[in-house]
Amino acid sequence: MTTVVLRSTDLTLRPWEPGDASALAALADDEEVRRWTSHRVAGLQDAVRWIATQEAGWKSGKRLSFAILMTGRVVGHIVLKQSGSEARGEVGYWTGASARGLGVASRAVELLTTWAFDPRTEAGLSRLELIHNAGNPASCRVAQKAGYTLESVLPPRAPHEAEGHLHARERRAVHLS
After folding, report:
1. What pLDDT, on a 0 to 100 scale, did the predictor assign at position 159?
2. DSSP 8-state symbol, 102
3. pLDDT per residue over 44-74, tens digit each?
4. How many angstroms separate the CA atoms of 25 and 104, rounded?
5. Most buried residue among 50, 58, 73, 129 by CB atoms closer than 10 A?
6. How many C-beta neighbours within 10 Å does residue 46 have?
7. Cα–Cα–Cα angle for 61, 47, 111, nearest 5°?
8. What pLDDT was estimated at residue 148?
9. Which of 3, 45, 8, 2 lies closest to 24 in space, CA to CA?
10. 70 closest CA partner among 102, 92, 39, 47
């Protein structure tokens, strides 16, 4: 998979880089990130290792992991997980404390979704799912703002011990005349 960088007015989504390790370690040392995600990074060395493992996802094309930058500063993470032969994927994300409440997550989800649905891209998906802890109303708002519809409540499943919400969005067919 070729390197993908997505931009909007004040957001950039780009693959994680080794130089992001300090920012990642600081962002991951956040009670809310640990509370709502399975994302675990414990310190600088762990951040360096985690960033290195993201390269394998890009090489396989199955896990496209992006740093979310707002005005040039890393403020979160977003990932597109693809299942391979199916034209579907799953979006996951988290933001650091400084970016919460600013619409960063929903704009990042929308930016990634638009790219993933574009048939001209390597992704070219037709369905995306977004799953989050049912007890996290902020994630419901993010999904809804990004056009994802709540489809079902999921039973607890590892590594999450609580029910989840499954939101989904389908690519709209484009009819050319």
Report:
1. 67
2. T
3. 898 999 899 998 899 888 899 999 999 899 9
4. 19
5. 50
6. 15
7. 45
8. 96
9. 45
10. 102
Backbone angles phi, psi at 44, to 5 degrees: -65, -45
The two structure tokens encoding residue 135: 């007890």
Query: What's residue 175's pLDDT?
Result: 45
Q: For position 1, what pLDDT does the model report? A: 67
Give me the phi and psi of 5, to 5 degrees please.
-125, 125
> Among candidates 126, 134, 177, 168, which has minimal Cα distance to 150?
168
- What is the helix (H) or strand (E) element at residue 133, kind and residue range? strand 127-133
The per-residue pLDDT for range 9-55, each reduced to its tens digit, is 999 999 999 999 999 988 887 776 665 666 677 788 989 998 999 98
Name the residue type at position 154: L
Which tokens is 23 given? Answer: 């920012």
Return the residue matching tokens 């703002």. Answer: 145
Amino acid identity for residue 119 in this structure: P
SS3 151: strand
